[in-house]
Amino acid sequence: MAQKIRLRTIFIIFITLNLIGLIILYSASIAPSLHLYNDPYFLIKKQLLFLFLLAIPGFLFFLIVPEKFLEKLSYIILLANLILLVLVFFPGVSEGKFKRWITVSSFSFQPAEFWKFSFLLFFSFYLTRINFKKFLFFLFFLILGFILILLEKSYSNSFIFLCIGISLILKLPIKKTRLILLLGPVILVLLLIGAISASYRIERIKTFLEKNEVSTGFWQIDQARNAFISGGLFGKGFGNGKIKTFIPQAYNDAIFTVVGEELGFVGSFIILVIFYVMLNLMLKVSFNSNDFLSLYSFGLLVWVLVHLILHLVTVLGIFIPTGINFPFFSYGGSSLVSLWWAFGVLFRKSLF
Q: What is the pTM of this model?
């Protein structure tokens, strides 16, 4: 009973955060929508389209589907997403400088976001009956997924995915000391290779360390931090922020800057407290569960938490720009849909 109460409380918080996120996105997207599409509501309408056509129907499906069927389905979802991760490298399938998106007509999506979900779902089932062969199979998919996302030039997403994989390892009933000694160096090497494998990442690091004021990258970091601070205690008021009018992607990569500028320290703090309460309850769900739910809820917690941290340290100028969105707030259909589906699986236990 206590577990169901926790999950139902998480559900209420989840819906609350999504509603707040839509309101903030509405404010953050008006100016760029008008400038880019000559329609002040273009981006928010598109986000609502993703929400009602894909996110909520998928959420309801994963909420009510029988567990045995879901376990079998998770294998198909994993393989389908693996194919999508590979497809982005084929000419004519993806567009743009970075091979991260699959484009079908006017619709684009990012397979890496759905890979997080499919990997977490499948291996939360698969690792409930752990043995050495299964663990090797898990490691193979973990390293394969990391490399494929890295080759898409999405280091931040590959890092988040790796964190999800590590979170599952930490929850396994195996001795951790020997595992850390064996896997620790491998993980560090993977992260180091990822960080220096592309020239633009090295340039970002140099820009951040040297604080080169001529650089566009540093200018954006500086402006985002100043805008956040300028909000003061209570902010400039909803819709009155200026940062969204001149920082590219303020409705996505830097949306918490809009929160800080318009709602101030108090508003920002309240939102982070709401996230903290939700994540703390998810941690309790994990440690008071066995098998699937224990692994799944902990992995989902880490997924959301790492997104939060990477976004916040960028906005506050503590770390180089990561391009990572803020869960439930930032514009982006792939992230929104994958998280809604993931939480749909979590809330199954609140019904059954």
A: 0.91
